[in-house]
Structures are given as C-alpha cells and as structure tokens.
Design brief:
The longest helix has 35 residues. The strands form two sheets. The protein has a two-stranded antiparallel ribbon with strand order 1-2. A hairpin with a 6-residue loop joins β1 and β2. It has one domain. It is built from six helices and four strands, in the order αααβββαβαα. The protein has 229 residues and is mainly alpha-helical. α2 packs parallel to α5. The protein is flat, with a radius of gyration of 22 Å.
C-alpha cells in the first residue's frame, strides 16, 4: 500500500494535513514572489530588498522542515530495503513496526531539543531531563531580545514587545519568530511517525520508506516496449 493514496479520516489528521499543505504552498509562493521582486528591482532599478535574501533563507528552512513530516505522510522518504527484503511478509512487518518505534523515539528527542533551543529566544522555560522532558526549569536564559539581521518588524506583531521583550521595541524581527518552525516541525514529525506506525500495526501501510511503484511502472513500460519491438 502506498501512503500517496491515503485519505485522513480523523479531524486531527485532516487539520494537520491541511495545515502542512497550506503552509508549504504559502511558503513556495512567498519565496517565488520575493525572489521575482528582488530580480526586477536589482536588474531594472539597480536596487533590491535588503531583507530579501534572509527572508528566502528562512522560508527555505521552513519548507524543508515542513517537508520532513509531509514526506512521512506520503511515504516519500528514501530508505534501504536490501535486508528487509530477505524476510517474508510477516518479518518485514515486524521490522517496519520496530523501525517506526525507533523513529518515534528519535522524533521525541528532536522535539525536546527543538523546544529547548527555541524556548530561550521566546522567553519560555526549557524542559528538565536529559533525554525526555520531566518538567520545566525555574530559571532560563532570556534571548527574546535577539533580532534577525535584516528582516523588518511587522507592525501587526508589535504586541509581542510587551509579551516577551519587557516592552522594549524591536528594530528588526525577533529571532524567535523564524525559529518557531523548530518545535512546530518536530511536533509534526512526531505526529506523523506515530500515525505511520499505527498504520503499520493495523495493516494500512507496508513500509515507512518510498514504495517501488514508480520503479515497477518504469519496468512495466520497458517490458511493453520490448514486446512491441
């Protein structure tokens, strides 16, 4: 079975799916618009958007991190199946489920690390515990005043100055805004791996890695051409 044809059944799954696809489409659109405007300004008027390069760099990072979880959803991550193919269907299923649980543990560790890193910039506490969160720290570093290099501070976000920067005005966009993708992306990845592992256990999915449908289709077309010749 391929994840490409899976339709979300739960409201949470539908929400996450819509959120991912909308975010990816918006990010691609913004990157295209910013790059196009910058090219026109650069070659047409010998100027440009000072913050354009930094904006597209952050947007590309957002796109990649969103893509991690979305690729799990559509079973598009690459993998090596040379060993698993040595086993029968039951053995492959057991190995796939084991891999799913390992991926869940990995995503959980990634989520903790992502939160702890981002929390410093958002005036929020890091978690306690070396591997898995056991609570929140009482004291934490406050890096809410860290700003990006060139990105301007949007007017509709000035309320954040009172929330996280003790009323101090931001000259540039604070770093915790673009860095927000770290815990969001890790949380989405954790959700997708839990979802994929459940599908493996219930027989809705055969593998966590990309299927061989495309390879089989190419082989089928090649065989058909040979027979015609």
């Amino acid at each position: 079975m391929s994840g490409f044809h899976h339709h979300e059944k739960t409201r949470l799954g539908q929400f996450v799916n819509e959120f991912e696809e909308t975010a990816i489409a918006v990010i691609l659109g913004l990157m295209t618009i910013i790059t196009f405007v910058n090219v026109v300004l650069r070659y047409g008027y010998n100027t440009g958007l000072i913050w354009g390069l930094e904006a597209t760099a952050f947007l590309f990072a957002w796109l990649v991190i969103f893509g991690m979880s979305y690729a799990v959803k559509i079973t598009a991550h690459l993998g090596v199946d040379a060993i698993t193919n040595l086993f029968g269907p039951r053995g492959r299923k057991v190995l796939a489920i084991a891999a799913g649980f390992l991926c869940i543990i990995y995503a959980a560790l990634l989520f903790k690390g992502a939160w702890d890193y981002w929390a410093n910039f958002a005036d929020l506490p890091q978690t306690t515990g070396r591997w898995f969160p056991t609570g929140f720290q009482d004291k934490f570093l406050n890096k809410a005043w860290y700003e990006t290099d060139d990105l301007p501070m949007p007017g509709f976000l000035t309320f954040l100055q009172d929330w996280v920067n003790e009323g101090e005005a931001y000259e540039k966009m604070p770093r915790f805004i673009p860095y927000m993708i770290l815990p969001i992306g890790a949380a989405l990845l954790l959700f997708r791996y839990i979802q994929a592992t459940y599908r493996l256990m219930t027989g809705q999915l055969d593998s966590l890695i990309v299927s061989h449908e495309a390879e089989d289709a190419v082989a089928e077309v090649a065989a058909k051409r040979e027979s015609e010749d």
